[in-house]
Amino acid sequence: MNEVMNNRVLLEVNHLSKHFQLGPNQTLRAVDDVSFHIWQGETLGLVGESGCGKSTVGRTLLQLYKPTGGEIRFAGERVSDMTERKGHKAYTSQMQMIFQDPYSSLNPRMTVTEIISEGLMIHRPNLAKKERKEQVSALLELVGLSSRQANRYPHEFSGGQRQRIGIARALAVEPSFIVADEPIAALDVSIQAQIVNLLMDLQRQKQLTYLFIAHDLSMVKHISDRIAVMYLGQLVELAASDELYARPLHPYTEALLSAIPLPDPVQEQSRERIVLQGEIPNPLNPPSGCRFHTRCPKAFDICAKEIPSFAEVLPQHYVKCHLYGEKGE
Amino acid sequence: MRTLPATGTSPHEITDDLFVHEPFAAEAAMEVAASAADSPWKAALKRLGKNRGVVPAFVLIMVITVLAFVGPLLTPYTYDGQNVAHSNLPPKISGLGWLGFDGLDSNGADLYAKRNITEAHWFGTDEFGRDMWTRVWKGTQISLLIALVAALLDLFIGVLYGGISAYYGGKIDNVMQRIIEVLVGIPNLIVIILFILILEPGITSIILAMTITGWVGMARIVRGQILQLKGQEFVLAARSLGVSNSRIMFKHLIPNALGPIIVTLMFTLPTAIFFEAFLSFIGLGLQAPLASLGVLINDGYKGMRLFPYKLVIPAVMISLIMISFNLLADGLRDALDPKMTK
Amino acid sequence: MNQPILTVDGLHVAFHSQRGEVHAVRGVSFCLQKQETLAIVGESGSGKSVTAKAIMRLLPKQSTSIPAGQITYAGQNVLALPPRELQSLRGAEISMVFQDPMTSLNPTMTIGQQLVEGISKHQRLDKAAAYEKAVNMLQLVGIPNAQERIRAYPHHFSGGMRQRVGIAMALACDPKVLIADEPTTALDVTVQAQILELMKSLQQRTGTGIILITHDLGVVANMAQKVAVMYAGEVVETGPIAEIFYRPKHPYTWGLLRSMPRLDAAGNEPLIPIPGTPPDLARQQQGCPFAPRCAHVMKVCKHFSPPLTEVSSGHTAKCWLLDQRAQQQERLAGVAGG
């Protein structure tokens, strides 16, 4: 992980917010004041449970949503308020996304070749048809599929194979940054490892940078250099993967780690568990102050009143929690 | 270790030499299932063919359409040629007398013999002596034409309107939907009467009148489909690739919405035919001597008691057309059902 | 050894589809003891859900058939029961919790109505008594303000709460067997922890046997005493939990354990995935169904289906590697086993 720290910062997110107006008095604050950065060549994992806003972060980074506040900088340039015309086209080839549902992320009426070449036609319009075909074949081989299957339709492939097609589509435009939004959640366990290994291989081969969004913390820890934990629209902790596991600072992270069942009966049945009370609050009506205080076993009086600040408490280890603000470190 | 009794294997077949490791080919494990499945369209076509109502309906429609153009050529008469001497003759087809085409009127009298007429009018004649066969097929031509043009106009306007409304959403959608609600709120018949008063009654005015509010159904279906498809991940993927809005609409959204669009179109045709017939029946349709099926039914209705064939023949024709289109549309709806394509 | 409360013996289930007969379950056998949790582990297409539904006879009659097998509960063959007796079995003796809490409750009935429906059918109680029992059940499963919330509709509850209601409904009539089909798959991990704890504590109280269907080995390690691993419609390995996790004998089980990342794993130990994809169950296969994906495959595996071999007390597996002759080959080749 230390190697990547020497690279430049590829993506910088500063105080990003995304709110959805659901009705006259109802604002869904899906993402609220989130800040982080990603170094080139790194894999940043983004975890959280339902309603935490991690998918929204991913989509806002890709300009699928317009941010309500804050800014996004890619390779130093401010991209969050680009309109369709200006730099959007160039930007779209730099940043791509891999989607969750292998059954709805591919157009059922297009062949594999058409799906993968669409991006090529936009960003490399000077390619002749023959060269495009060759590119498609090369991409299919790269993701572990046979180029003989290029003229088939998505429904002829299994879930894992469709995800590979989705990865090939994203790679066709030669991006430097890929947001993987729950890319393995809909796949069988034995296939998940195939796809994760593929992603890691591709990262080495193509010097890619990843934002890996998932709710399976075990898999995220395996693939990520650093992990960011979100709760109800806010970033509550950010640290290197091993560090987060060994020394979780935020009570939510502790509870999350404690809740994950380990495939090891002896350990599992003798563990000390932190079982959180209650349910995740309604995101339309988040608690005041620190949003976790209603379920936090360590909450005290300031937690309900003031939002804690996101501070670097240990080297490269950030937490948003009053335990570390008041008491100091 | 104890081997528990197994079923089906006879231990003698399993020799020791079988217990050697085979080289393991990981790539072979990745192959897609051997048989290539069809494209979504071909698969739908196959399903369509299996539907028992569809094939006869389709054949019937083809036959009727062909006859609509060929029929009038089979006789020497024109649709508007009058011949008073031949007025009100019952249908007579030699050879099909047992089916009712015997040339006898409701009293059993043979008018052909009485008036010394040797030519047989297959579907009889009307009060002006115009040959019914020719008129019926000419009328079918016109009905089909009106229906087709009206349906196609509905299609283009509806798809474009509904598609734009759904794709852009927000305020645009709001405004466009409110306009539809206003249009739908005005009674159809009043709009049509207005049109016919302003324009001369004729084919053009009927088509325009039907189209002016007919496209709304299609627009709503298309809007519903596009709204649903808009949020699908493959559309998001296209946007993130930088695909232009028009290409998303025409290459991603509409092809996946084609199922309900085609079905709606198929159902629009019989509705249009019937509506035109209705307009003609109440006298707002085509003017004499032009005939559509509706006009013929209207004329036939007036002479129903004495000359039932004048009503029955065009009524049967219009019924056959509508039933066939409905069966075809039903079959299409089942065949194109998206749940089955997964 | 106690008598098992539920035994499944040689169960076969086939679906009639457009493409032909799909053999979803091929000769599955296992048994469940009182107050035991048996986990059935498998991926999609393994037949685990179909097996669960077959026990409750919830499979659609038109398109499925059970060509062979017996399911014995309290001395009776469930598959042969006439409808009336089957009805009194369901809910009262054997009940089920389903996967998706969003769709497993009727949205047009209050949860009180749904609870009472089952209670009053099986336990001749009058309305007031049934309602009281329902409230108790809700309190038992941890729904706060049960007295008030019993009059609420499902959409007023979150996913975790709905699953609790589902568990309350399933346990309302004190069944001896609870079949839980992926009960926590659709829930967040912190809520999953709560539900698993709930199920365990209820099991302690009532002595219910639980059949837990899941694909998550962590959940299995948390809850089960016995595990049956299913692949392509067959049970390929069964055993006590320690045996399955620490001394597994079937290559598929090895594959599953090696392809799962562990939270407590150090650094970057690579995941070793199982290559290929699960087989097409519409095709009848010769030999072991896992052969196309098995790195230890032998000639015999492709032609003959392996017999069930007992590895140790209570631990069985279906693999040719366990045969004497394969062991010999291993010794000759000097390859370490497993």
Overall mean confidence score, pLDDT of chain C: 88
Cα-based radius of gyration of chain C, to the nearest Å: 21 Å
Mean pLDDT of chain A: 89
Low-confidence segments of chain C, given as residue ranges, are: none
Portion in helices of chain A: 25-40%
Oligomer: heterotrimer
Q: Name the strands of the widest sheet of chain A in spatial order.
A: 6-7-8-3-9-10-12-11
Note the gap between the termini of chain A.
24 Å
Query: Which architecture of chain A would the CATH scheme give at its second level?
Result: 3-Layer(aba) Sandwich
- Under CATH at level 1, the class of chain A stands as Alpha Beta
What general form of chain C does the structure show?
Answer: globular
Largest interface: A-C, 42 and 47 residues
- Superfamily (CATH H level) name of chain A: P-loop containing nucleotide triphosphate hydrolases
Backbone structural class of chain C:
alpha/beta
User: What value does the Rg of chain A take, in angstroms?
Assistant: 21 Å
What structural class results from the helix and strand content of chain A?
alpha/beta
Q: Please give the alpha-carbon distance between the first and last residues of chain C.
A: 30 Å
Descriptive terms for the model:
heterotrimer, A: 329 residues, alpha/beta, Rossmann fold, four-stranded antiparallel beta sheet, 12 strands, globular, C: 338 residues, eight-stranded mixed beta sheet, 23% strand
